[in-house]
Amino acid sequence: MWTRRHFLTGTAALAALPLPFSVAAASGAIALEARERSLSLLPGTTTPIWSYRDEWPLVVRTPRGAPFRAQLTNAVAEHTTIHWHGIRLPNAMDGVPYMTQPPVGHGESFAYEFMPPDAGTFFFHPHCNTVEQLGRGLAGVLVVEDEAEKDLFLADHVVAIKDWRLKPDGSFDVFSTDKGAARAGTFGSVETVNAKPHAQLDALVNGWVRLRVLNLDVSRIVVLALDGAEGFVIATDGNPLPPVPLKAWKLGPAMRADIAFRMPRQAVRLQNVWGSKPELLAEIALIESALPGIGPVPTLAPSQVPEPDLKSAERLTFDLTAGHVSPALEAYLKDNPNVTLDQLCLPQRTFWAINGRSWSGQDHKLKPPPLAELKRGRSYVFELFNGTPHPHPIHLHGHTFRVLRYSKEEIVPHLADTVLIAPKERVEIAFTADNPGEWMMHCHIIEHQETGMMGYVTVA
Fold first, then answer.
1. 14 band by pLDDT with thresholds 50, 70 and 90
2. Which of 97, 119, 198, 285 lies most in the core, judged by the most C-beta atoms within 10 Å?
3. Pick from 114, 148, 182: which residue ends a domain?
4. Which residues have C-beta within 8 Å of that of residue 27, sequence separation ≥ 6?
């Protein structure tokens, strides 16, 4: 089989093939400084985004199972943290302010240290005032690499989807509205992929291409389709999947999909077919090569996620509904007039709930009871019912689960950390509760998260 290594050593033509843009975590360590930087998102303007480094999107690559250290320095005007989305890591490194660590104030630093147990496509972002901090661009891609996969693809591209709420002069518009928060979210006015109207990539003819597609937006749902080549979904939320033909794969906010295809002698287009008219997400141009067009779809390294025991699994139900302000929070704020909602990472409104409970605060004094108390090592099936008229991508921290079934459509069972649930739909997920701690579970339409649709489970 022809591999990237063989082609590198066998021809000088590969000098024309740009390597994937990324920052390697040298010796397993990387410095991240959250601060304001300039980025051109509208022609003739610059936008004062927030980012961790000068590159956007920032792509950090690190080996699976090796020590990883990220030193966060906060140079923005408010406190922040980093949540490592989809990584099965120790609870103290999960990056939820007040729950798992003190918030990192302006001028302060915090070191995140863990060993990523799974290869795949992940990302990182704040977990307080997320609608504004992520809305300003504070996010990065984390690619965890497996040694067994390094020669499988001749092109390995990141496709980061994120929209921005901008005024015509390039400055930011309001990040959230009550109308949006109470419905499907407040959508961006400028749609981008890799900070451009669409990503412009390339690949060698007959070489296998890997597109790591991430939905980093706070509201937008996309449906992926490929035009010009036969595509396959080979990973979901970073987790390997036996190749599934790509027809229309849905990604809610925070969800990821890795797409593989063999590059033909024509341009290939990755499209969003969510609406009535396809939208271009990425165009992959061809680079001529003498590669033979043979070989099956590359297979990723096996998953390290423990399989749940469905026969003995305990079943729990979680209803996603409308919500209201917690009486405990109202009483606390009345008795503590010097405490503000901003200090508690709370918005001014509450619209959503899980099992009738709206998140009442992220201060320990206001922490509500857990949604469920799980026993370490036991298997669970969560039935998630969306009783609202809007979709909700539900994310569980600290664990990777298997999506078993949807009530409204047939699916391929797959591993994930975020699952998109349509209105009036029931979805079943299963996992082994093997990671001790307090783990958030919430909607990743960020305005829904920050207006009540968030809770946590304990594993002990």
1. very low
2. 119
3. 148
4. none
